Amino acid sequence: MLKVEGLEVRYGRLTALRGVSLHVERGETVCLIGPNGAGKSTLFACIAGGVSATHGSVTLDGKRIAGRRPEQIARSGLSLVPEGRNIFKTLTVEENLRLGAFMAKDRESIQARLDEVMAHFPRLAERFRSSAGSLSGGEQQMLAIGRALMTGPRIMLVDEPSLGLAPKIVDQVYEILMSLRDEKALTLLINEQSSKRALRHANRIYVLRSGEMRLEGRAEDLQDGEAVMRAYFGFDERREVGEAAQ
Ligand SMILES: Nc1ncnc2c1ncn2[C@@H]1O[C@H](COP(=O)(O)OP(=O)(O)OP(=O)(O)O)[C@@H](O)[C@H]1O
């Protein structure tokens, strides 16, 4: 469904992504993990059209999307829940959700989308007319996911849904993500800080470190966590450096 090949992204002299490839099949939940600064948010932003690549290709259902504008990519069925959520805090929950419906043609289809989001997020329905800034962190994360759903995506990229949330709240966010996957057949690519959580929820895992993809595998083959940790921390390379120094 989504295919990224040989992606390179630069910020001035810094190469944030180097030769990065990844694929997500329809119906899969794929988690991307990696240390801070690895380039995960850059990869998500680049797929969603917010950052330009210097090399490589991104295709959705076989059609090239790299170089297209974010709203064109959203129209193709890909929606991003950005890192930090980007909620408009002075607007109400309803207004934030309606902003996500920029592609809908008429009032009826916007209302239908709103009803659908409310069904998945009863807490947002209760706080419908409250300002988004008055919501708790978990509720704001749910609002960000709800807003992304308003475009009617087939695949959703969720950038660090756990950020700053207590484990119990993260559990609730994942419960909702998993119910969206099951009930709406939504394909998910999630940037997840916790490798344990990634291994629990994903079909497949990617580990990105220092702008390069270090590991790809099926979650069921990686359950002991060892290969993931090696790729995450670069243990093998450290040992090589240590041996060379002796
Ligand atoms: N707009 C920008 N301009 C310049 N450098 C940037 C910009 N955005 C990110 N970077 C740099 O690119 C690299 C990758 O950052 P990115 O935010 O993609 O990593 P990340 O894996 O998402 O990290 P984190 O988990 O901390 O968000 C880092 O070195 C970061 O400092």
Explain what the structure shows.
This protein is α/β, with parallel strands linked by helices and 246 residues long. The chain has a single domain (2-245), classed as Rossmann fold. The protein is 39% helix and 25% strand. It has helices at 40-47, 70-75, 93-99, 107-120, 122-126, 137-149, 167-184, 195-201, 226-233, 235-245, and strands spanning 2-11, 14-24, 29-33, 55-60, 63-64, 78-81, 155-159, 187-191, 204-209, 212-218. The strands form two sheets. Strands 6-7-8-3-9-10 form a six-stranded mixed sheet, sandwiched between helices. Strands 2-1-4-5 form a four-stranded antiparallel sheet, covered by helices on one side. A hairpin with a 2-residue loop joins strand 4 and strand 5 (63-64). Helix 3 packs parallel to helix 6 (137-149). The longest helix has 18 residues, at 167-184. The N and C termini lie far apart (48 Å). Adenosine-5'-triphosphate is lined by residues 11, 14, 16, 34, 36-42, 83. This is Amino acid/amide ABC transporter ATP-binding protein 2 (HAAT family). GO terms for molecular function: ATP binding; ATP hydrolysis activity; branched-chain amino acid transmembrane transporter activity.
